[in-house]
Design goal:
This protein is of the alpha+beta class. The protein contains 17 helices and 25 strands.
Amino acid sequence: MTSDELRNAYLDFFAEKGHDIIPSASLIPHGDPTLLFTSAGMVQFKDYFLGRTVPANPRLASCQKCFRMTDIESVGDASHLTFFEMLGNFSIGDYFKKEATAWAWEFVTERLKLPPERLWVTIYLDDDESFQYWKDIGVPEARILRFGEKDNFWGPAGDTGPCGPCSELHYDFGEEVGCGKPDCKPNCECGRFSEIWNLVFTQYNQDENGQRTPLPRTNIDTGMGLERTVEAITGKTSVYETELFAPLLERVARLCGKKYGIEKETDVAMRVVAEHGRGITFLIGDGVIPSNEGRGYVLRRLLRRAALFGRRLGLDRPFLTEVARVSIEHMGHVYPEITQREDFILKLIEVEETRFEETLSTGLELLDGITADLAKKGKSEISGKQAFKLYDTHGFPVEITREIARERGVTVDEAGFEQEMERQRERARAAHKFELKGTVRVGDSLDIKTSCFVGYNNLECSSTIVDLLVADKSVKTIKEGQEAGIILSSTPFYGEMGGQVGDTGEIIGSSGRFSVSKTVRVSPDIIVHQGEVIRGSISVGDEVKAIVDVERRLDIARNHTATHLLQMALRQVLGEHVQQRGSLVAPDRLRFDFSHLEALTREQVEKVS
């Protein structure tokens, strides 16, 4: 059975059981800030499990693209992957343990024809109900094992969300594959057993503090790893021996002029290049762009790790586009988005890999010098300062420094590196302290009141002076000709934020008038009105009228709208990969920073305009 046949067999089986077949969601989770990536099939169904929304059919099934970074440094062995496909069937308050276990056993033994004697079951420690269901199906008691929370409790996906005890199906490759110990059993690290299917009995919701409360109703969330299951079906002992990876490894072998299966270190490097090359293709296909943070950093790290292992194969020029081409050729019929975005995927990989080549050469040369010097001194640790200099000055990721160091028998002072990183963050924070024309400054420790912003619906309002700031200090009164900052109990003035300039206008009281030349938001709850007293005096506690310059605000609003129109035009002309990277919205102009691989041509500029 091929991977295509397995996907179809699984989805057809659960369609027969009354499930709606749901397409794979993007690797970028929609509306879930707790997750960087879609890491399981249940992610797109989270709101169903939590009872926030109700599906048209409580029975669902899918083949979901997934991405996990937890084991990236283990990629290269026989089983670990960053990108993988997860087959899953889900019950939203409908069937539960009895049906889930019965159907799982039916599918693997009758549809996949896996020998029952090679299948083992694990359950949660006190789950006697699951134990009885598996026993009733015909699984011998000796092959139903109990494990604790580490092995048989799943979730949540991210820091919060649905979770519960689980039961797993493990495939036994035979005694000749494993460690040979008489007590070898599922969850042994020797490789004899492979977990192919996890049945999660979703019963709880975990909050930010780790507290679990019962869900409104019990649910089923299962995940069958497609790659591992193909491995079991075909009698292979590594996912890299299956038809999913064979064409990728063939292309890598052709590029580097080496054969797969001859030498252990070469095999590991070839597997890393193949696996990461496939993962990179799907990340970019779903809209991830290389950057120094978040998803973009993960993509960049994956690409750079692949480039490093390519060097070990003798590939000293960009090569990852070739691996991506094979991924698209062999998987585009299942996930057409990578075929539709092929040109962009290949161009971005080429640009990013080419940029890193010089960094990699420089970093490897510097690391050679550092490790040679350590050997002379009889030391075995790269200092935090050295690792930070490689990162900060030469752009060499600390993860790669760590990986190379480990292979050379030395370590990295990770704590020292983090200290250097924190010093850099402190310098950045110090450089961004807020100042008012050199005379009024809001420091980190000043205890000032909060402001209520009402400016979305009102351009003037009655308010009260709650604080006056002069030269980093709160004062009671300010007089004509004096520059200061005013904090109001409520304000219609928009504070400069997110690239949009702040409002100007006036604050008028019974004893004085204040001209607002700039408004800034110094924290989510504090808005400071900068300017000068142009008549009389202003005191804390005064009742005042806050009035925004209306014409200027309308000019800003028009330019704000124009940035959204510009982004839409850029996406239409250049592609959906275009993402905002910064902006300036002022009354007289706008600037829009965006991600793209190269400078726009004159023709593209005209089309966007």
